[in-house]
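Chapter summary example.
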Amino acid sequence: MRPLGKGDPQQIGPFRIIGLLGGGGMGRVYLGRAADGQSVAVKTARAELADDPGFRKRFAREVAAAQRVGGPFVAPVVAAAPHDDVPWMATAYVPGLPLSTAVADAGPLPGPTVRLLAAGLLQALAAVHAHGLVHRDLKPSNILLTADGPRVIDFGIAHSAADTALTVTGTTMGTPGFMAPEQLTVSGPGITGAADVFALGGVLVFAATGSGPYGSAEPQVLMYRTVHEQPRLDGLPAGLREVAADCLAKEPAGRPDLPSLMARVGPPGPYGGDWLPDRLTVELERLSARLGDPRAPGAAFPPTPHQPQGPPPPHGIPTPSGSYGTPQFPAPYPPAAPTPPPAAPAAGPSRRRLLAALSVAGVAAGGGALAWTLRSTGGAAGPDPAAGRRPGGAATGAPAAQLPQALRDAGVLTIGSDLTYAPMESLSGDRPTGFDIDLGEALGRVLGLRVTFRNAAFDTLLTGLNAGRFQLVMSALTDTKERQEGRGDGAVTGAGVDLVDYFRSGLSLVVRKGNPSGIQGPGDLPGMTVAVQRGTAAHDYLQQLNRQPTAKVRPLAFASSAEVYAAVAADRAAVCLDEYPVAAHAAATRPGGDGLVLTGKQIDPVPFGIAVARKQPALRDAVRDALDQLIASGDYRTLLRRWNVEDGAVERAVVNGGG
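The structure predicted for these 659 residues follows.
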């Protein structure tokens, strides 16, 4: 980090600028601090970009998309102002070394480190692809090595800056030597997530050998080699060589998908103190001390233990750890101990739960927070229609009267959410929207509190709750015994939480109107073509079904949810399978009048709960009774109908019903 110069800003948005970190594709990159001590990397646009209206539009669009990407292996966008005089964005900052710098300084990485690097990068790409983004410029300088694993930076946003450069100069988007052939040929296939898989192969070659798959040369030479020559894989150990070769296939269709690569590489972590060579670990410690890492001892937000124990767990639905198959990454890349296959089909992880359920100290420290304040009518609520005695002997009364005095005095209820799971919670423009948002606002009215939603990566929400950054968490959070006891999601999240169950969700089947194939439930699926999105709970469920000694389902897997529903509407598939709230909302709101409907009952529904720190029983009881009041008044059903998810209704508020 360099000191600020005369022309550098002292403040950008809400962030005090500490120093200059360097330059990026957009412009300059600064180290900033928020009022709560969170460290961020603030990137500002170059003047020629700031003057281009087209850039601003693309920048705003892709910032909105990037804010939905969470998980422990990406640097989340926490704030942005694409329409300021100087457009900027801020990402959560974690002290790290670019992979390019680490290899230049310390030489090629050892085999176990490359294995852990590959596993983390696969998780990062899965998180990016799940939201319809393609990184397009995965390369060693866009990968940070941190004490808690790798981090991918500049997804989506690098695409915006390069788009403008392409318009102005005719240059190509990406970095020669790591770009896929289809990025280099005008008449080639469209750019999909397979381009990122190609780049991943190049990154692994670089990490293990110190050189890219096509050597070092002028950009034009590297581009020619990429299209016309085979990659140089000499010196790669067995196991890694085969993985890299498959990723570097010339044709996109010939490259493996992310789930199959995850199965071969093995689980991410654990990223302890010895995951990096000693020289790099020492350099990270120096960097952390030099930059005043807020995660250092005595800081406001202490680190969260990072202890992944296999493939990323779901948002709370118990899933067999072998759902990705047994890792097959030969020595010197040893897999984790294999686990037995599931005995029977079960509800798998949900889409974002699969991608963002590991804990991470770096993101947890900053919280990745953006806050929106929602209106509240204020005033105390009337008598609770559900007043009486609960199991366990807790008496109920007017919900607002039960609130802790400090919260009543403050008058503001802060609710943590990751805003990535439409229609439960998401962003519409620059505002939060969804059933969770509406319900949170309604609870605030009953409790006489103004409601603020604070956006953070999902895997940081419970640690944030325990640290007091939120009073509640509402984020389609599945109620499990492990989560209640403070040991879910691969991290210790404090003394535990109580979960006030407010919704039930499983998987649902969607067919064309009239249900021409007569599908009513899972028993009707064998022999059918079923559309599904790759890497989701539904995809995992179909794979488990096909392990049973019955007629096989014919999965038709797609990269995006839109393609899944389009396949059913076009009669390419008899049915599709998706998570209930997503399926119900998509069928009801799909444009074009395609006539899609849900059929049968939800498959293996489980409760979603509003999380309250266990040390706050008065707040828990107030929330429970406020929800009961909304149920009794009919307001709860009205909100469900607004979002087309009535079948997720609960009859009454129950605490810890999922355990």
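To summarize the output: Residues 98-290 form a domain with the Transferase(Phosphotransferase); domain 1 fold (CATH 1.10.510.10).
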